[in-house]
Write a structure and sequence with these properties.
This protein is α+β, with helices and mostly antiparallel strands. It is built from 7 helices and 11 strands. It has a 7-stranded antiparallel beta sheet with strand order 1-9-6-11-4-3-2. A 4-stranded antiparallel beta sheet has the order 5-10-7-8, with no helix packed on it. Bound molecules: fe (ii) ion.
Length: 282
């Protein structure tokens, strides 16, 4: 077993919208020690390795994120003192890490499938951060469980679909071609903030598109993020893609929750239209 059983029930009851604290048993796994992570950094294609300096403001402009002047491999080797943040993306492209990802997600796949369809597009990410590194305010398009492997981080989490934090236009831009994950942060948002302390063995279900920023403690941090998509995440993306299209045509479409039935109809219409377009083009 990778996860402790009891908190999994809490996770399942609140999935996909509620955060849940979990416990895992992956600390000490040899695939996740620093020597193995240097080898994985070398093995993955360059496009799967993103890194920059770690001492960023929460509201960092993504177009101006400063680099650290090192190679990716040097960054991992020197992570203790090079003041950097690095993510290894799509670790499932490496056979050993693909097996690890499957081992983790197989434990929750039946729980998530019950109400929102089977998980698919399994993807894994490993975050390696220098002491004190900050991940700026952003949201992600996947269902996600973050497993803390080494070091300590504080995960500052905000509710998804709260229009005073992320406007409908920002949702639509996020789901459009070239939309960036980083968001504007305002101190007033902190009225909604939940701060969760993660130590080795802790894990956190981060609900789909819940905005967050992360602060690493005074040791090197390693975290494994296991992600998937579902019927629910598909519907969320389609809703905002259709809303963006409607807004371009001069309409003012409502957010999810204001018009659930219309949202479902729009998602269905988008799916049908996509199918028709594929057939016509194919
Ligand atoms: Fe994230």
């Amino acid at each position: 077993m990778i996860f402790d059983e009891q908190p999994l029930g809490v996770f399942a009851a609140g999935y996909p919208v509620a955060p849940a604290a979990l416990r895992h048993h992956l600390t000490g796994n040899p695939l996740l020690d620093m020597a193995a992570l240097v080898e994985l950094t070398k093995a993955l294609p360059a496009k799967s390795v993103e890194y920059n300096v770690g001492d960023l403001p929460v509201e960092q402009d993504p177009d101006k994120t400063p680099m650290n002047g090192l190679s990716a491999e040097e960054t991992v080797r020197r992570i203790q003192d090079c003041d950097s943040w690095l993510v290894l993306k799509n670790i499932e492209d490496h056979p050993s890490y693909n097996a690890l990802l499957d081992n983790v997600l197989d434990e929750v796949s039946a729980l998530v499938a019950a109400d929102h369809g089977p998980m698919y597009k399994r993807e894994g990410f490993i975050f390696i951060s220098s002491p004190g590194a900050v991940t700026p305010f952003h949201m992600d398009p996947e269902h996600n469980i973050l497993l803390q492997i080494a070091g300590h981080k504080t995960f500052h989490l905000y509710p998804a679909n709260e229009p005073s934090l992320v406007s409908p236009e920002q949702h639509e831009s996020f789901h459009s071609e070239g939309g960036h994950r980083n968001l504007v942060h305002d101190k007033a948002y902190d009225a909604f903030r939940q701060s969760i302390s993660l130590h080795p063995g802790d894990a956190l279900h981060v609900p789909l598109k819940s905005p967050h920023w992360v602060q690493v403690g005074d040791e090197v941090s390693v975290s494994l993020s296991v992600t998937w998509r579902s019927r629910f995440s598909d519907a969320e993306a389609r809703l905002h893609q259709v809303n963006g299209w409607l807004r371009q045509k001069g309409f003012n479409p409502p957010m999810r929750g204001e018009a659930l039935i219309r949202d479902s109809a729009k998602s269905l219409a988008h799916r049908l239209l996509s199918g028709v377009t594929r057939r016509l083009l194919g």
